[in-house]
Amino acid sequence: MKRLNLIIPMVTLVLMLSAVSCEGEVAPAPNFDATVAVAVAATRTASDVQEKVAPTLSAPTSTTAPPTPTTESASTIQEFNKAIQLDPDDSDAYNDRGHAYGLLGKYKQAIQDFDKAIQLDPDYVLAYIGRGVSYFFLEQYQRAIDDYTKAIQLDPDSPRAYMNRGHAYGVLGQDEKADADFDKACSLHKIYC
């Protein structure tokens, strides 16, 4: 079970990184062993991930370290600060800065930006997904599920929302719901299979 608790945040980080890349492309996961990243990308369920990644992992730990801050993310935040100063009603700038904060492991600040993006645009699917990812990393799994569910209501064809919600259900031990979401994500886009 400890390995599962380590793997699910890693998978979610890969999904979070894909949220800031071009649609349909998964950005490479920083600071992950390449073998782990390939195994995670090629699996559908938490048990599949555990089975394929276990030989690669060294001694399991009870927690996963947040992403390492990068100069690029910090300078990106400065650019979004400038954009927000120029147009305080730009929901995209708040959403994108929220993703940058998330990459730095500053999930509470990320949530504030996602909240503002949602306030400005209540139908902003990616802001709900981003906020859900931040809640997930703060171990507020039900709040993450609520955000992913709202994203699905707004865009029933969002494989990312189904996949992320499946991971949150998995952490809570709701395996049937997790598997249903993984299956739905896979049916929507092969990259989630």
Polypeptide structure, described:
The protein is mostly helical and 193 residues long. The protein has a domain at 71-122: Alpha Horseshoe (Serine Threonine Protein Phosphatase 5, Tetratricopeptide repeat), CATH 1.25.40.10. The protein is built from ten helices and no strands. The chain has helices at residues 2-19, 34-41, 46-53, 71-86, 91-103, 107-120, 125-137, 141-154, 159-171, 175-188. Helix 1 (2-19) crosses helix 3, helix 1 runs antiparallel to helix 9 and helix 4 packs antiparallel against helix 5 (91-103). The longest helix is centred in the N-terminal third of the chain and has 18 residues, at 2-19. The chain starts with a helix and ends in a 5-residue tail after the last helix.
Keywords, separated by commas or semicolons:
single chain; 193 residues; mainly alpha; Serine Threonine Protein Phosphatase 5, Tetratricopeptide repeat; 10 helices; 68% helix; 0% strand; elongated; disordered N terminus
